[in-house]
Amino acid sequence: MRLVVTPEQAGERLDALLAGPLGSRSQAARLIAAGHVRVDGTVARKGQKVRGGELIEMLEEQRPAAEPDPGAPVADFAVAYEDDHLIVVDKPAGVVVHPARGHRVGTLAQALAGRIAGGEEDWRAGIVHRLDRDTSGLLVVAKSDEAHRALKASLQARTMQREYLALVEGRPPARSGTIEAPIGRDRRVRTRMSTDTDAPKPAITHFEIERMLGRSTLLRVRLQTGRTHQIRVHLQAIGHPVCGDPEYGTAALYGLERQFLHAARLAFPHPAGGEPVDVASALPGDLVAALAQADAAR
């Protein structure tokens, strides 16, 4: 298995970085201790941190299978747009994008195996960006190395627009705003992301009010950067957590079984011809029902 460290991963411990593709941090640590991991051709050290751009090689095959085993659950999804170069997927809540610790089968990448391609890691072939498991909506997946490179470049150049609808507790003091606060692993709870971190990475989120309700507000949110849990962390940081968020807000609010966060619009230049691709996704039924409850809670 080979993978290239992205600039966003700079500063992470190698064992933490490899926990996703290998299934656990302890498995990654065992392989490093056994001398089976190399960084730019040199045997990796225990506790080593990455800088970004390194080539990581593992000498034993330990990654999750690119295709699901017979009988394994198959991820549900809809196709919002497709051509010879890419697929824009409309992902339901509950679906994991690619294999990771605790989610070895039943992922979107496995359900799309054979239809998508591109990138250094075949366990997440074609994947350009991710959505959290319990965030619904749009993401784009490449069908070739060329399309993957072009879409990644669009993401990094910020010519890819990613807009979300988020129902938040309370009401922001302005109709629109920008949250600029670095994000990293929380100092105390290592499974959470936070603005209170020892490893901050720049993060910028823009928002505007879409609809005002009694005790909550529907926001349209646009990502400028793409850190893990960025919208959820940033909105919590300004005192308006996403409704129903079990990690950063109030679980089960308005009958929600997950956070009210939906990737509602995705727009980017086509990787082959450059023409604009602009795809929208309507709120799914569970969020429509929650919105009705929020509207009634005066």
Plain-language structure description:
A hairpin with a 7-residue loop joins strand 10 and strand 11 (193-194). The protein folds into three domains: 2-58, RNA-binding S4 domain (Structural Genomics Hypothetical 15.5 Kd Protein In mrcA-pckA Intergenic Region, Chain A, Roll), CATH 3.10.290.10; 64-157, Pseudouridine synthase, CATH 3.30.2350.10; 158-298, Pseudouridine synthase (2-Layer Sandwich), CATH 3.30.2350.10. Mean pLDDT is 90; it is low at 61-68. 18% of the residues lie in helices and 27% in strands. The protein contains six helices and 15 strands. Strands 5, 6, 7, 8, 9, 12, 13, 14 and 15 form a nine-stranded mixed β-sheet that branches. The protein has a four-stranded antiparallel β-sheet with strand order 1-4-2-3. The chain has 298 residues and is an alpha+beta fold. Helix 1 (14-22) packs across helix 2 (25-33). The protein is globular and about 60 Å long.
